[in-house]
Specification:
With 538 residues, this protein is an alpha/beta fold. It folds into 2 domains: 340 residues, Glycoside hydrolase, family 3, N-terminal domain (TIM Barrel); 157 residues, Glycosyl hydrolase family 3 (Rossmann fold). It is built from 18 helices and 14 strands. The strands form 3 sheets. The chain has a 6-stranded mixed beta sheet, with helices on both faces. The chain has a 5-stranded parallel beta sheet with strand order 4-3-2-1-8. It starts with a helix and ends in a 14-residue tail after the last helix.
Length: 538
């Protein structure tokens, strides 16, 4: 193999990030998303994969066509992190209730949960196909055994190993039927961490027997069923390797995943720009170590050229045998042969069918939990709808016309939205009555809505907020008219116990506008209405 051929071959194993928007100025994260000129150069030089984020589903269709036209190869991998349906990242397609919703349903109605999980996978795969993607970076196979997990939380399909295994297998059957590749992540299991691997390297101190009984159960199930790819986790697990993160560990990726579990598909790293790796290892060396450990595809290296150069040098020097390169290329080719060939046409394709829409609403309806009486309407008294947003700005689920704002306003409430980068609801003084600044809330009843789900890059900051004390404070002055929690089931389970039977309370795992509307309809006793989707780009 000549030097030029080797460089082209190595480039096939990189997956770089691009915006789903057409223009460079529309990029949301220019630090990580290559500009168009760089994208064209890298694709022409052989780079074989792109992960996309941003833009509408319609924009994504056109973007995938463009990226394929820039590549000299027919076998470009196009993927996205769409764990909650295509609409989670690309408005205009279906944004589905998070997987944890089905984990809770599985406890009471496993048959319905499994049927919905398979439809979930099929809808995600079919819409991915329509948009031009051939690889879905899902399902999450992490068993969320730690309620305080700052990064997985509702992304997981539950907190019981066998339940998660059943649900991810059902999801994958649906995805397979759509002819796109799936990806089991984050191996060997990110569900019991206290740190966010976007920001630091989490430590899992469990012994091997515990890993076998909990973390590895869903991965074994999907490996046995023939999952196309597995994504690594940036975790330090001393029971497997006491010096290297799983992503860079031969003991984890080759000895455990390949040899012991028998996985023969593609191994892809989690994003190498994440600080769990990038804080200590440069972009070239991180790519080399991951490849040497057993990874086939290098996702989002901090510097694509440095990654290619470093792997080529390691191959030329004999640090990595050239047979490893051929093995990875072969696995890549075999995976792509499993995909249905994408056929683009100039005719506009409907991205969300009536069947897809029905699934979206059924997932929401089946996951709502409501207790207590209907909400009083307080038409004769102005109240405050206090909304707490735990997440990065801007929030795609909360715009001016979403139900969390408009429904309470129609019943006499003014809206106060709190965010760590904006208004904070907390008192600056230590009042004995509680942590909230009640003067800021004015007079009258308070309807509290909490959007809490555990978000990457937040490092679990929501765990320090005193919502239990705030609820007790409002109850003490007889001002709490109701509570709605969107997202984290663990916060809901703890807070609902504080709410007396005389106060209405409700929960939705989903935070999207449709979930808000369905929950508030039920809490207020409003008739179910058909609501048109409103799509907003950030």
């Amino acid at each position: 193999m000549t030097e030029a051929e080797r460089r082209w071959a190595v480039a096939r194993l990189l997956v770089i990030r691009a915006s789903g928007h057409r223009e460079d100025r529309q990029r949301q994260y220019p630090r990580w998303e290559h500009c168009n000129r760089e994208l064209q150069r890298l694709l022409k030089s052989g780079v074989g994969g792109v992960i996309l984020l941003g833009g509408t589903a319609t924009e994504l269709q056109q973007r995938c066509r463009t990226l394929r036209s820039w590549s000299d190869s027919e076998d470009l991998l196009l993927c996205a992190d769409v764990e909650e349906g295509i609409g989670q990242r690309f408005p205009g397609a279906s944004w589905l209730a998070p997987p944890m919703a089905l984990g809770r349903l599985h406890q009471t109605n496993p048959k319905q949960a499994l049927e919905l999980a398979e439809r979930y996978g099929r809808t995600t795969g079919e819409q991915a196909q329509r948009c031009g993607l051939n690889w879905v970076l899902a399902p999450v196979c992490d068993v969320n055994s730690n309620p305080e997990n700052p990064v997985i939380n509702v992304r997981a399909w539950g907190d019981q190993p066998e339940s998660v295994a059943d649900l991810v297998a059902a999801f994958q059957r649906g995805l397979d039927s759509a002819g796109v590749l799936g990806c089991a992540k984050h191996f060997p299991g990110h569900g019991d961490t206290h740190q966010d691997s976007h920001l630091a390297l989490p430590l899992i101190n469990h012994g091997r027997s515990r890993l076998d009984q909990v973390e590895l159960v869903p991965f074994r199930r999907l490996i046995d069923s023939g999952i196309a790819s597995v994504m690594t986790a940036h975790l330090l697990i001393p029971a497997l390797d006491d010096s290297q993160p799983a992503t860079l560990s031969k003991a984890v990726l080759t000895d455990l995943l390949r040899s012991e579990l028998g996985f023969t598909g593609l191994v892809v790293t989690d994003a190498l720009v994440m600080e769990a790796i990038s804080r200590t290892t440069g972009p070239g060396e991180a790519a080399v170590q991951a490849f040497a450990a057993g990874a086939d595809l290098i996702l989002m290296p901090a510097d694509a050229d440095a990654a290619i150069d470093a792997i080529c040098a390691a191959l030329a020097e004999g640090r990595i045998p050239e047979s490893r390169l051929h093995e990875s290329l072969k696995r890549r080719t075999e995976a792509l042969h499993r995909c249905e060939k994408l056929c683009f046409s100039d005719t506009e394709v409907e991205l969300e069918s009536a069947t897809d829409r029905a699934l979206c609403m059924e997932l929401i309806d089946s996951s709502l939990e409501v207790q207590g009486p209907l909400l009083s309407q307080h038409r004769d008294q102005t109240g405050m709808a206090l909304i707490r947003v735990d997440g990065v700005l801007p929030c795609p689920f909360l715009h001016a016309s979403t139900a969390a704002i408009t429904t309470p306003e129609r019943h006499g409430y003014k809206t106060l939205i709190c965010h760590e980068r904006g208004i904070e609801p907390w008192s600056t003084e230590k009042f004995p009555a509680g942590p909230l600044d009640l003067e800021r809330l004015g007079e009258g009843p308070v309807f509290l809505q909490l959007f809490l789900r555990g978000n990457p890059f937040r490092a679990g900051q929501q765990r320090q907020e005193s919502w239990a004390e705030a609820i007790q404070q409002l109850l003490g002055v007889e001002r709490l008219s109701g509570l709605a929690v969107y997202g984290c089931p663990y916060r809901w389970d703890s807070l609902r116990k504080l709410i007396p039977d005389s106060i209405p309370a409700g929960y939705s795992p989903g935070q999207m506008p449709e979930a808000q509307q369905q929950l508030l309809n039920r809490m207020w006793g409003l008739k179910e209405e058909a609501h048109e989707r409103q799509d907003f780009t950030d």
